Structure to design on (401 residues):
């Protein structure tokens, strides 16, 4: 289960997420009640009590919400569910507003993982992205979580932000490693001002080049690995003993809309405005409009506004993408030979010339060099993206690098 909590007190100009900016905390109760109403609709549709293997609170800023409102939401959801013995509960926290009371409240409901959005520690970069948070504040909330009993602390970092340099990236990564988090997510900044208007507030000439971004990434990888963090698929680095590393080594690593996970569930249910659900055979997304979301759920209607049913070919190509992203290799199905020859193999042969994959008749495997280009390799299996690119030559999404 993913629950989207969209409110933030201030706008981070780099952010491409669905969020609502307000300092009025009176909005909390209405939103919590709406999510509870949406959950009630699903509970009526289910023929048996749901078993929750994984629960993630994302945003926006989940720590925008008071401990009392977070508790009210979780009580309603969990009282109507069975919690699996190996369940993982996690949430995203802003270092500037995560309180000890919030951490304790969520811990009491079973949360053991917290992900803090650090992004960058350089004051110049923090000013332009409107996210001022000293490293001492990150240290403080990390120590609070560990004192309470959280067993996993993740830091999100972003490379490719305005005014970043190789020196500043190096310092950010090294400063964060000195706090000994259990995981890092090291994301490429996605510049999509045509969908995220806040990104228009800084000049594109201040963004690093694609070559600089790759240098930033490679330097980050070098420092992580030198400090005994192991790379997991795309963007993620973990300490030895982490369950993601164990799952990767065992060949059971999974990936869903929330990221990498060692859990396997047949249904991912998204609650809240813009949340995405995945049945394995279909995707569905809730309304991105808060007004429409409220109207639908309060009228006892599901707020799903669009979706896609996968055909058998979609499901096979989805598996190719999943296997590349989680295991670094995939094996081809004979049923797909014609379309692979037409769309995918030309892409893979070019990637092979660049030394990023090893291609054979039966399978493709990512090389060590290719581990930095997992997204590009997966794109070779995205028939919808390839068809769209051929049809209108229009860029709709961010660049991989």
């Amino acid at each position: 289960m993913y629950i989207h909590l969209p409110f933030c007190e201030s706008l981070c100009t780099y952010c491409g997420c669905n969020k609502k900016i307000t300092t009025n905390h009176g909005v909390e109760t209405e939103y919590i009640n709406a999510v509870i109403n949406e959950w009630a609709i699903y509970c009526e549709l289910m023929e048996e009590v749901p078993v929750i293997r994984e629960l993630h609170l994302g945003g926006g800023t989940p720590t925008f919400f008071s401990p009392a409102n977070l508790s009210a939401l979780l009580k309603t959801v969990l009282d109507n569910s069975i919690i699996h013995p190996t369940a993982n509960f996690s949430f995203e926290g802003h270092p500037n507003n995560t309180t000890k009371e919030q951490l304790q409240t969520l811990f009491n409901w079973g949360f053991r993982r917290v992900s803090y959005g650090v992004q960058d520690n350089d004051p110049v970069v923090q000013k332009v992205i409107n996210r001022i948070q000293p490293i001492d504040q990150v240290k403080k909330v990390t120590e609070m979580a560990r004192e309470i009993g959280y067993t996993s602390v993740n830091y999100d970092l972003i490379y490719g932000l305005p005014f970043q340099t190789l020196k500043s990236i190096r310092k950010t990564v090294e400063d964060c490693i000195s706090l000994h988090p259990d995981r890092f997510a090291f994301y490429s900044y996605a510049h999509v001002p045509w969908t995220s208007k806040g990104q228009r507030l800084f000049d594109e000439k201040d963004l690093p080049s694609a070559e600089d971004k790759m240098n930033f990434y490679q330097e980050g990888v070098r420092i992580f690995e030198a400090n005994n963090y192991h790379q997991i698929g795309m963007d993620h680095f973990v300490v030895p003993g982490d369950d993601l590393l164990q799952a990767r080594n065992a060949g059971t690593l999974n990936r869903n809309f929330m990221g990498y996970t060692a859990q396997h569930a047949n249904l991912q249910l998204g609650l809240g405005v813009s949340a995405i659900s995945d049945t394995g055979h279909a995707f569905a997304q809730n309304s991105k409009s808060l007004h429409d979301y409220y109207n639908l759920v309060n009228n006892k209607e599901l707020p799903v506004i669009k979706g896609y049913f996968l055909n058998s070919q979609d499901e096979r190509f989805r598996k190719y993408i999943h296997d590349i992203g989680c295991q670094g290799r995939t094996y081809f199905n004979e049923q797909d030979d014609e379309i692979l020859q037409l769309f995918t193999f030309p892409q893979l042969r070019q990637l092979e010339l660049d030394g990023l994959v090893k291609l054979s008749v039966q399978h493709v495997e990512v090389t060590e060099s290719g581990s930095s280009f997992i997204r590009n390799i997966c794109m070779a299996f995205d028939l919808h993206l390839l068809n769209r690119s051929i049809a209108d030559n229009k860029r709709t999404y961010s660049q991989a690098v």
Q: What stands out?
A: The chain is about 40% helix and 20% strand. Residues 312-392 form a domain with the Arc Repressor Mutant, subunit A fold (CATH 1.10.10.920).
